[in-house]
Amino acid sequence: MLAPSLALMLYAFVLPMLTFFEYSFYTFRRGKLLDEFSLTTYRRFLFDAYYQTIVLDTLWMATLTTLLALAIGYPLAFALWRLERPWMKRWLSLIIFSPIIVSVVVRSYGWIVLLADQGPVNWILKTSGLAAEPVTLVFNLVGVVLSLAHVFLPFVVFPIYSSMSRIDPALREAAMDLGAGWLRTFRSITLPLTLPGVVAAVQIAFTLALGAFVTPAMLGGGRVLVLPLQVYNATAEINWPVAAVGGLVLLVIAIIVVALCNRLLKYSEA
Amino acid sequence: MTSDVEFRNVSKFFGTHAAVDNISFSVPAGSFFSLLGPSGCGKSTTLRMTSGFEFPDRGDILIAGENMAGIAAYRRPTNMVFQRWALFPHMTVFDNIAFGLSVERQPRDIIRRRVGEALELVGLTQFASRKPRQLSGGQMQRVALARALVKRPKVLLLDEPLGALDLKLRMQMQLELKRIQREVGTTFIYVTHDQGEALTMSDQIAVMNNGRIDQLGSPQEIYDHPATRFVAGFIGNANLLPVQLAAEGAGRSAGMATVSMGGFTFPTQIAQEPTGDKGWIVIRYERIRVGDAARAMPIRTQARVRDAIFAGSTVHYVMAIEPAGTEITVETGHDGLSSPLMQGSLVDIGWEPGVTRLFGDV
Ligand SMILES: Nc1ncnc2c1ncn2[C@@H]1O[C@H](COP(=O)(O)OP(=O)(O)OP(=O)(O)O)[C@@H](O)[C@H]1O
Ligand SMILES: [Mg+2]
Fold first, then answer.
1. Cβ of B88 and A175 within 8 Å?
2. CATH code assigned to B237-360
3. Listed GO cellular component terms (chain B) (predicted)?
């Protein structure tokens, strides 16, 4: 059982990674790829303001997306957990699941229509008097973050929900019995005990957001330049070194985030 | 004597099923009160209504004279020890016990002192910094007890707190609970389905059956004078034997009646007046004398030994009463010297007239 999967991993994952790694040391000069060892690309990613901005924008977008997905996902998970009627539970989980059932292209167009200057959201803002001018919600960071947070909902809600449903109901009763009201019970019992679910949700949402390509491309309208887009553009110009280093930077960030989260998890359980 | 908890005609329905059906009782301050009954009879529901996790559909619950209608769990002067203890897994033993006090915003040094006292009371001082999963069942049980007691409740509620422990530890914890109760003087309401536990520890026992209280009394009253057939059968080991009543009025005198069982006629105490001419008598295993001891009894007959069950300090004999063959179980002490009765042998059995109780045929 183990050998075939190891072989597959080696062929489909480790080998490409090594090739990738090798390309990151090539030289790209005047539109040509040269087989000359250099650290130029690494240096550019570290010190060139252009690349620094891309990396920071990517981190910023992933952070905002994760926070928004958590802010919406945690209460949804809580509602799913507290709902008494099975049919309500079924419907709510279907709604939470729906974004990943729909194709990313279709969903993105949906958001474009919804958030456009003449779209329903702006119409509501205008008629309710909240905004005199249309608010730009699409072809910028806002649209990208909204749409990504939307897709990631199931990945955020279900780990949290599962950690909630593992809590012994007697614990909440015990807290109330000892004099804790709703808020105190939530803060001291429910929240700490669902932290592992939250951490898992953060890991998933953040790493998915780092690698998101179609959504930033469609809803960013060219104004949201994140690393995956930069990598794509680089491959189009056969600039393998930039593509490789961009990919490696994404990988390193993801590894750091996952490691940090695991650290947090251990701390919360100790 | 003042009462700490009082139930007045309390009922609780789940759907159309009455989990608790019009019960009334009052628990004297400082006493050890047990709710005893088989699974599903409504013990936990009664306790949960006292703590405020459930609210009665009918009737009133008073704690220390105050009506608890509409008062939430966290505002009641009761604390609960849960069946599976419900310790907070992410907190240390100290923090578990301190939780109720920190909710009250007690100053830090007071919390430290009172938690220290509680730990000492249950003998867990050196375990303060452990997490619940690093404790044994008995230790977790003590933490749960300390966590509830540290709040100095008027009434401590315990829902089968020893149910998950093994027999040896259970006996040890019974004694310890009783000691702690005497030491702190708090009213304990103790839920159990284990009649032995209830008999050993309680000042008062309410025996529940199907959402009702069948009998309320001291352990001895309940053991010696069961009020219903259910109580008689539930508490201790008792034979329940069908009998025929003698003709109307015959052999009646001051609470006694004459009954017969397949030709064997004898007097019995009346616990519950039968409506027809059929009834049941209840007689405990250990009240029946065998052999020489039986010959000195006012009521006696002969029985054939069918089976002997050895149980260490006692031996249970299943016998058939001659001539009808009614089966009866007899308990005798085992002294380790005399050999048990032979299977198939015919022996004398007998008892005092006061030890059988007659119940109606319902
Ligand atoms: N939340 C609930 N919803 C519906 N029915 C319930 C609920 N809680 C209890 N019941 C029913 O009420 C009856 C009494 O339950 P209760 O838990 O009080 O029994 P118990 O005497 O504590 O039994 P056990 O010894 O098994 O714990 C049972 O028939 C049970 O099925
Ligand atoms: Mg129960």
1. yes
2. 2.40.50.100
3. ATP-binding cassette (ABC) transporter complex
